[in-house]
Amino acid sequence: MGSSLLAVIYLVFISLGLPDSLLGSGWPTMQVDFSVPSSYAGYVSMTISCMTVVSALLSPRMNRRFHTKWIVIVSIALTVLGLIGFSVSRAYWMLFLFAVPYGLGAGSIDAAVNHYVANHYPASVMNFLHCFYGVGAVISPAIMSLALKLARWNQGYQWTSYIQLGIMLVCILSLPLWKQNESADEEQRGESAGIRETLRVPGVVLTLIAFFAYCAGEATCFLWTPSYFAGTKSGLSAETIASFGSLIFGGLMLGRLISGFISNKLGDRLLIRIGIAVELLGIGMVALPVQGHVLAAVGFVVIGTGMGPIYPAIQHMAPANFGRQYSAAVIGLQMASAYIGSTLMPMVFGLLQQAVGIRVMPIYLLLFAALNVGMLEIAYRVIARTGRESR
Length: 391
Known about the structure:
Elements: H1 2-17, H2 22-34, H3 41-65, H4 68-87, H5 92-120, H6 123-150, H7 153-173, H8 182-191, H9 195-199, H10 204-232, H11 238-243, H12 247-266, H13 268-287, H14 294-307, H15 310-316, H16 318-322, H17 324-356, H18 361-386
Helix pairs in contact: 1-6, 1-7, 2-6, 2-10, 3-5, 3-17, 4-5, 4-7, 5-17, 6-7, 6-12, 6-15, 10-14, 10-17, 10-18, 12-13, 12-14, 13-14, 13-15, 13-18
């Protein structure tokens, strides 16, 4: 039963990754249909992320009131509604309407499942879990690319919604599997701290800034990688440019797959340090002034590979760094901080690239990588002084 539940949890994270890369992959074509500037993708992305922030901030309260399985099912249903809504949108303003359920479906499920895994499974499972997020995020650009080739971008959202419906059905059928940890979860939900109390715990705010920085860089890659190739490399078809949306996700999946095999031996902190070093290498590859697209494509895969272990490692450390009493609120706050970065910074980059050119993207990513590692290293020192210290 334990392995069956784990399989369902992995499938849930595939569903979480599926919607995230569709907008970036489809936007070069969508902006033409809607007759809007390229930077307008940032406003849609911002709306989705704002709703995800709201959902993530509500997650500690939701975790105290409802079991993870119910949060999962309702959240997937909301993303299905958002995807179907995008598929039937015929005007730009309609995207904002359906961005509400699109975003609300992501925050609570992300925080709830991460908290569940952090408290019941080892670091290797957390990395494999986020690897499966990458599986979903790699699949959807391929779906969008196929839709652009055979039909229109609308079908990319429609076909993805069908996959989400199938995953939701599996989750409904698997409800009995969640019983194995219900008693422990009930006890922990009664002891969980609130957001205000958690913010006063030493080191929490520093990790929130680090999460903001990490997701600012990650979300910028999610949204603007296809546009980077469209703006800097010539001779590429619309289908090829759309498929490049999967580069960063493929790298994330690879990085988390590798981390899943070595995380229990190396520990979360060392994995993060290695990951950031690899990310910096990839940024350097993208920044090199080479005419062809191959080196930049490899560079984005390397960036994703380096980013791979950072997100799951920070979340897995939460119970050890801050205690089980605070872990649910810490993870919910981390998710909110992450999505604030995802909300604001891709939009800021959209305005920046419109003003100075999209070639500035590697410098933009470098700034957030530096902020990420700087805040984490300071947080480690603060946590060590409290007597709590995870590997």
